[in-house]
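Deoxyribose-phosphate aldolase: structure, please.
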Amino acid sequence: MTVTSAELAARVDHTLLKPESSAADFAAHVASARELGVLAICVSPSALPVAETGDLVVATVCGFPSGAVKSEIKAAEAARAVADGAREVDMVVNVGVVKDGDWDAVEADVRAVVDSVAAAAKVAGLPEAGGDPEAATRGAAIVKVIIESAVLTDAEIVETCRRCEAAGAHYVKTSTGFHPSGGASAAAVRLMRETVGDRLGVKASGGIRSLAAAQEMLDAGASRLGLSGTAGILAELRG
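Here you go.
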């Protein structure tokens, strides 16, 4: 599919997760996101609540970047994020548990965060998300699950996505962008989309640094892109 700059921006989570980012960096990030016309920003939990966001959807991360955190800690972190204004929580699956093939534990880990986000959203008086992957655009709170696809086999990607769906997640996402094995690949995005169909969103994130790479992810089935170099990619599209 060929997209305009506005169409691409409407699929972007403009991301700033560098651990050295300061309050000034986050403020500048929000300003640039509004100027670029992106859908969402994704920032560290410590940056919440975020001021001057306008119509931007606010996303944050949970159990980031390793995923090797107890489920109850992830759940508490996710609930706090919703209370602090996040409407999308990108949690990291426990990759070690995936590698162990303990699929019930994988599903339970995701469900703990999904249930916690739903409970926090209810307390905050937010609309119910239901099964809508884009519910955050109407003020609800949703969960995206980062599966770290570059370190998984195809069979592990498929089963992880199935368990995420069974646990009530709204999105599956390729990567944190911090794992040495790499980030998003078109092959992983395609497999994830084939697995979840249109029932869940698919977010490609990690190492997408050019318009060609962004286009490849969209063609493979990504509904969202996590980008840190958004301005350059949109400028490339505008020519």
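Notes: Residues 8 and 169 are 24 Å apart (CA to CA).
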